[in-house]
Specification:
The protein is an alpha/beta fold and 245 residues long. The protein is 37% helix and 24% strand. It has a domain at 90-157. The chain has nine helices and ten strands. The radius of gyration is 18 Å and the shape is globular. Its main location: membrane. Keywords: Amino-acid transport, ATP-binding, Cell membrane, Membrane, Nucleotide-binding, Transport. It comes from Nocardioides aestuarii.
Length: 245
């Protein structure tokens, strides 16, 4: 059974169609990278998957359960998902440790001592152990984004959703965050990632989806999509974003 299956997903804002009959299947341990121009629907798709946006039509099935059912408990669904945004979205009044342990304690009912032990282990794993007592404004952008990743992982999600997580970073900080995501992919973490980092997508993805005008126009293994795209629109996009030669 697929971990996630999206069927005929449609989302509009007024008269503007943002997602148009999107189909997507994510198997366990897949790393699916969503590429495309700004406004193509990548971030909206992730927000729909996390139930932060209502959909107008179609279904989202997570672990065999239709989570677009109007009677579904959204909080319960989000317990199975981890979402990381480009703007970090850390709570500024909480320390790093408290940011990481908040959801395990308040949502999952984990005892404080256990939640803090798990948090310290994750922070150490991602080179953040010395920052546990600091507040977000004392960290660099790259460190804050790594904390956001740790916070998402602390709930042990079935699926990790990453929305342009390097977009707000200075160029020299991008690499340290992408290294973490590469390590997660190597460890078998199932992810759907919206990204403008083409070399990263080619290196990490099991499948790449090119979105254009709210549709997944083309998808396939990275070597196939980047080297021999079948759609002219995909070829135009890649000519713009890939280095020549």
């Amino acid at each position: 059974m697929a971990l996630l299956e999206v069927r005929d997903l449609r989302k509009t804002y007024g008269d503007r169609v943002v997602l148009d009959d999107v189909d997507l299947v994510v198997e366990p341990h897949d790393v699916v990278c969503l590429i495309g121009s700004s406004g193509s629907g990548k971030s909206t798709l992730l927000r729909c998957l996390d139930l932060l946006e209502d959909v107008d039509d179609g279904t989202i099935v997570l672990e065999g359960r239709d989570v677009t059912d109007p009677f579904v408990d959204r909080r319960e669904v989000r317990e199975r998902l981890g979402m990381v945004f480009q703007a970090y979205n850390l709570f500024p009044h909480l320390s790093v440790l408290d940011n990481v342990t908040l959801a395990p304690r308040k949502v999952h009912g984990v005892r404080r001592a256990e939640a803090e032990q798990q948090a310290h282990e994750l922070l150490d794993r991602f080179g953040l152990a010395e920052h546990a007592t600091k507040y977000p404004d004392r960290l660099s952008g790259g460190q804050q984004q790594r904390v956001a990743l740790v916070r998402a992982l602390a709930t042990r999600p079935a699926l990790l959703l990453l929305d342009e997580i390097t977009a707000a970073l200075d160029p020299e900080l991008v690499g340290e965050v992408l290294t973490i995501v590469r390590d997660l992919a190597a460890a078998g973490t199932t992810m759907v990632i919206a990204t403008h980092e083409m070399a990263f997508a080619r290196d990490v993805a099991t499948r790449v989806c090119f979105l254009d005008g709210g549709r997944i126009l083309e998808q396939g293994p990275p070597d196939q999509l980047f080297t021999h795209p079948t759609e002219e629109r995909t070829r135009q996009f890649l000519r713009r974003v890939l280095p020549e030669g």
